[in-house]
Amino acid sequence: MARPAARWAARWLASSALMLFLVTAATFVLASMAPGDAAKAILSSQSGSYTQQQYLQLRDELGLDQPLTAQYWHWLDGLLHGTLGTDLFSGQPVTAELNARLAPTLSIILGTIVVAGLAGVGLGIVSALRGGVAGRAVDAISLLGLAIPNFWLALVLIELLAVRVELFPATGYTPLGADPEGWLRGIALPVITLSAGGVAFVAKQTRDSMAEVMSREFVVMLRARGLSGRSVVLRHALRNAAIPVVTVLGLLLVSLLGGAVLIEDIFAIPGLGQLAVTAAGSHDLPVIEGVAFYFTVIVVLASLLVDLSYWLLNPRVRGS
Predict the structure, then answer these.
(1) How far is CA 204 from the centre of its chain?
(2) Fewest CB atoms within 10 A around its CB: which of 8, 34, 263, 298?
(3) Which secondary structure element, helix H or strand E, spans residue 154, and what is its range?
(4) Is the pLDDT assigned to residue 115 strictly greater than 90?
């Protein structure tokens, strides 16, 4: 048992380190190729006009005149020493700015996973057991969830539930510790927006997986032994059908990182996505790189949770 676990841990650590390196390196190269210049943006915001000498001097102070490989190595060396650099505009540590914006992003992402998981699994189980109209309804929900763009749904929800009914705030974020009710109301519309497609994916995968498991011989034997239908479904069938569903939830979590960038901008949520948009517009490379690093860490942790779920749900995985 210990040896397979050690091999798995070594593979996971190696693949995670490689992913972090590749993503941050690719982000650094792509961001540096984008139009714009941080030095010009800083000088323009300070005085509006500047000389060529001032521009060159600022580029030298910021290290922007160094070769790209040297800039990346400097950033990587800082990462190995526990720092992600300094915001070129505010002069604040990038880590402090990212940490201040991490809670809103995680609130939206985790809230979406919970809603999509509970609603999707519930719909999928009902569809698998009832079939007929329920199955067609899940298919219709799946197509609808895939067809509706997130940005359009967000605008519709703002109009209906924030402007006309005034049930939820249209923009902004309230920290959980300051006002739990305000926090819940503030993330409601972003979570509903992002959950639409997620519920469809999870429901369809749950239905297909549950339908396959319910047709197995062990389910027939459990019913023949007199176990209640509820016990058969929740304690036995769902556990065996859970691995594909867990995989979909892991993929959904990863995809939400991209969706959060747009949704946070629409709802004015001060999260990592909104920070990434602002940094990209000003060509603030350390901040862009920091957001990419945080997003990659979230992906790595999501992969770890999925693998641990496999480990717990399927005994055969533990001996592989």
Answers:
(1) 21
(2) 34
(3) helix 150-157
(4) yes
* CA dist., res. 211 & res. 156, Å (int): 35
Query: What whole-number distance in Å separates Cα of residue 211 and Cα of residue 253?
Result: 25
Strand, coil or helix: what is 50? coil
pLDDT score of 225:
77
Q: How confident is the model at residue 48 (pLDDT cuts 50, 70, 90)?
A: low
- The pLDDT of 173-194, averaged and rounded, is 92
Q: Would you call 129 helix, strand, or coil by DSSP?
A: helix
- What DSSP line would sit under 249-305, residue for residue? HHHHHHHHHHHHHHHHHHTT--SHHHHHHHHHHHT-HHHHHHHHHHHHHHHHHHHHH
Paired tokens of 223:
């019913």
- Considering only CA atoms, give the Rg of the chain: 24
